[in-house]
Amino acid sequence: MLEFMDYVQTAFHAQSRWNIDNSYAALTTTAQNLLDFRIPQGLRLHVSSLSSPSFATSYTLGSNGLVDGSLSFLYSSSGLSIASKSSDIRLEHLVRGYRRLQELQRPDELHWNEIWHQGKRIDRKDALLYGRLYLPGSTLEALYLRRISPTRMLRLSGVSDASLPNGGSALALLQNDYGKYSTEYLYSTDSALLGLRGLYNFGYDPRTLVSQQPQHSTRAPAHPWDHQSGRLSAGAEAYFSPINKSGGVSCGLRFTTLPTHTGFPYTMTLTVNPLMGNLSTTYAVQAGRYMALCSRFDFNVYSYESDVVVGVELWRRKQAAADVAWASKLVRPGWSKVVEDDVNGVLKAQMDDKGKVGLLWECRVKELLVSLGAGFDLKKRERMLGSVGIEVSYSS
Amino acid sequence: MAFNFNWSPLIADTDRVRDMLTSSLNKSPKPPIIVDDIIVNELNLGSTPPELEILEIGDLAEDRFRGIFKMSYTGDAYLTLKTRVQANPLNTYLSTKPSFASPQPLAASSGLTIPLQITLSDIRLSGFVILVFSKQKGITLVFRNDPLESLKVSSTFDSIPFVRDYLQKTIESQLRVLFMEDLPAIIHRLSLRMFSPEYQTAENQERSKAVADGEVPVDPFAGPAQQPVDSAGMPLDGSAPFTLDAPTETYASFSQKNLLRLATLTESQRTLSLFTPGMRDTVYRAWASAADREVANDASTPMLSRPPTLSRIQSTLGSQSGWSSAASQTSDVPSTATRPSLASFASAPTVYSLSSGAPRTRPGRKRKNRVVNLRKDKGDGKDVSETASVSSSGYTASASGSAGPSVEAATGPSSLSNTQILREGEINTPPRSPKKKVGFQQQSVDDSARPQRNDSTIRGRPVTPQTRHSSHMQAADDNDDTPRASMILPEKPTEVEEKRPRRPQRQPLPRMQTLQERPRPAQLNRSSSSEVSLQNLATSAFAGEGSNGGILEQAWMMKMATEIAKRVSDEKGKQQAWRPAEGNEGFDGGEAPPAYVS
């Protein structure tokens, strides 16, 4: 489940019209959501609040070993009009599951954001400030986002901790998103790591279709790879550290179905690390509105190590109220209902070939959002249950 | 001086060394690049030992050694390590960083573990090493400077020069740390296992075993007769109470205060300090030596042959036989001539003592040697003296009453004259001042009379008849030997356990017995050994009566004595307070007699 602050950040991105999926780093988001979900450890309590459209606070208290906690504050220059009450937030917004990619949007024009008043531009760039202080560990995390332009965002993040070398590190990330392709440049002060990421989407160029509606079904395929109902993307990343004289390279490929696709939406990815010889392939399918399946296969051509992970996500529908059940049955099939939040719980499970099983159950109880997690190790006969955790979150 | 290296035993036990090295390498936190445990695959110590050149020897003894050497090693030893390393530097770099400010690459940081095997060979060492060897504490080897000169590192990555150089540099630095810090600890533990069998077992076993060993000298029942001299001497080593390494069992039967006082006494001897602490419940060697001189009077062998140094050693060692012989008090005894030599001999712990000696008088007597006769046949007298000294020492060990010392001392020498009787009962008999003896009366009158009376009181046996008897015998014996009373060393009560058939010559026993009677109760109150001494007393008491009694008679007497001893020990607690007062009667007011008897 997304923490409240991440939820607010996502709202900020959405509000400032930033497509977080159009990045090489988000190539395998679906598989990561379905397979690499975080299982809570110990007991944790979150209390958050969106005190004003621009300001959010959150406090967490955990008992993982010693009692620890954190305070976090967030400020957004643009007011966020989102549901912040834990009883109102849609569970699908909080629980990351199958990521249904939308059609590529044409990037906004620069002048669309201009707001003039009495002859002066008074629009301001969207910015977000976020800080988190961990106690008693005395670790400080800071984040600064700024939407420099509709196609550019700067992200500065830093961690300050006495136990880290040089007292901490900072990361600067400049992201450019032009719809058809996106690039990222990053620099980390820790060992002067330079990074470069790029993603290219095959298919139609949204920039060229200015006036037309994106009617993909009628559009002729531009080239053999241009599936109207799917999108193929390819990307690569490279890192280099002049201090360590080390680096890394990887490249990836993704094919995902678009909403116009008839049938079950599915996503396939393939990522390769040529230096280390690592191959990783994932396949995720949304088999119904309330279920999603995913599998991943890793393989190393040098050491022949392999890994298989399967995951499933099940949503629990809300039971229709008894008094209106008869009425819902009378609704004609064609009539569309207001899409309400009709799920009140989700179960996630993943299992790998080493016998490790992870279970996560997230639901809403009254006004609280609860997530229960447990990790098993089936290979160990004597101590099968590894870690169990529960997280309770409340926001207002 | 040359060093002869027996290089093979070390090679034979490389398994243990391998395990120790493996555990020590994995103890410290490993860098993230190493993803698996470091396992020592093979350890070969080579064929050539290191060359040592002695620079300085600091301490040299049979069981101790300390020296500074210059060591150089140019052998062909080699060591093979096996582990798994992470081949992706980005993985090791990012795994240690917090995820919030990390670039979080998609797949560029995926890991790849590679098994790695490293062989260290062509090790060249040269440096100064301080080697300390102690039989109890093992070997300690410390390098004064960094000994590693050069090293050849070969690994599975030899084909990549960058990795090869990096490994060479890293391992060389780690090895320097290992030599300076970890190697001394490993060698120390290994040496403990090899040279001290006790350390191989659990510590409890070691302690119990040590206690068992230590009980021998401490227990008055035990005697040097049951052990070779050396090993008996070891626990009786006077240095034991003075060193911190002394087995704890030494303290089990000794009064801590007395041991402390003995330590102070030794210190004062070494530092020319004039302070001599008075020790209660001890028998001073000076007293015994006076009694010994009496014995020595008849000695057939010259007692002066005894090296005076021995006496000194004995005096220092005589923590247990702290009793300065009553000889000092019995100096007026007629047999003064041989006293000095006797005195030197007299100290109890010196079972091993040795030799010559007046106490060896009594050639005519046939004695049962409770002590292993290490000396040539100098005659029975020697054995007697030994026994006597042993018994006296044992008696002292039992912390007999302070009045006892003089009595014991007197008894000791006197016992020599009655070797046979001493064999069985005499040794059991605590030393008594030669009260009954002519000439000794004065010295031991106060001492022995009281014990005698008390003995009779406590044991309920009529002492007087024995006294009379003993006086008879005393007169008779005087012709024979040197005054026995003075030579009645406190026989080790251990003899009591040896229920040997009583000798006909038990007559002197009663004499000695009566002499010792007064201090006896005090001594008996001390410990179980005192019970034994009581038994000795009892047996000797009866011995006098039935000098020709059979074995059964003797056994019965022993039994009686044991019972009485038990009874007395029961009253020990009550008489605790009473004991010190009595103890001082032997010598005036707790003043310690001179430690050395010239």
From TrEMBL, chain B:
Q: Where in the cell is it found?
A: Membrane; Mitochondrion outer membrane
List compositional bias (Basic and acidic residues) regions by residue number: 374-385, 447-458
Do the record's keywords include Transmembrane?
A: yes
**Where does this protein have coiled-coil stretches?**
none
Q: Which gene encodes it?
A: MDM34
Tell me yes or no: is 4Fe-4S among this UniProt entry's keywords: no
Full protein name: Mitochondrial distribution and morphology protein 34
User: Where mainly found?
Assistant: membrane
What's the stated role of this polypeptide? Component of the ERMES/MDM complex, which serves as a molecular tether to connect the endoplasmic reticulum (ER) and mitochondria. Components of this complex are involved in the control of mitochondrial shape and protein biogenesis, and function in nonvesicular lipid trafficking between the ER and mitochondria. MDM34 is required for the interaction of the ER-resident membrane protein MMM1 and the outer mitochondrial membrane-resident beta-barrel protein MDM10.
Q: Which UniProt keywords apply?
A: Lipid transport, Lipid-binding, Membrane, Mitochondrion, Mitochondrion outer membrane, Transmembrane, Transmembrane beta strand, Transport
**Organism (species):** Oleoguttula mirabilis
Bias-annotated ranges (Polar residues)? 412-421
Q: Name one GO cellular component term.
A: ERMES complex
